[in-house]
Amino acid sequence: MESMQYRGRVWKYQDNVSTDHILPSRFMTQVEPAELAAHCMAGIDPEFAAEVRPGDILAAGYNLGYGSSREQAPRALLHSGIKVVVARTFARIFYRNCYNIGLPAVVCPEFLDRVSGMDEVEVDLAAGVIRNLSLGESHSFVKPPAFLLDYVRAGGLIPHLISVSGN
User: Fold this and answer.
1) 103, 44, 104, 48: which is closest to 78 by C-alpha?
2) Which class is 5-165 in CATH?
3) Cα 29–30–32 angle (5° rounding)?
4) Residue 31's pLDDT band (boundaries 50, 70, 90)?
5) How far apart are CA 54 and CA 57, in angstroms?
6) Which of 55, 63, 155, 60 is nearest to 100 (CA)?
7) CA angle 108, 97, 37 (to 5 degrees)
8) In angstroms, how far is the first alpha carbon of the chain from the final one?
9) For the chain, what is the mean pLDDT?
């Protein structure tokens, strides 16, 4: 079974980060993963795409991912190397799109109160715990339902459906 633990640096943003902040609409026509990643967070952080590393974690305040219902924004995060997104709250469609493409999305307001950008953290989805290794603190969150964890393990909804259908 694939590990449900992710460790990386935190990229911390404010409330109301929209899908246009994550991937401005002028780049929504891109389909190649590298092109999506190259423009990730261009709406609010022009340095992000050049500085993000595989395994990093994105954290934001309230209403992360409001706006467009298209999957390109969470895909840009995934292809940039982000392994988990953590927020106080998510726009509903963005939250589900994250899991549909295999990107875990975690609600943990207490974590956002304490974390700083570039803190080293570990997210354990199966245990429902975020450990801030820089501060030596832990924060609990409600574990995602088993079916969403199955999507993450499979790499998203479509790969999951293919695996369970036997094709």
Assistant:
1) 103
2) alpha beta
3) 150
4) confident
5) 9
6) 155
7) 90
8) 20
9) 95
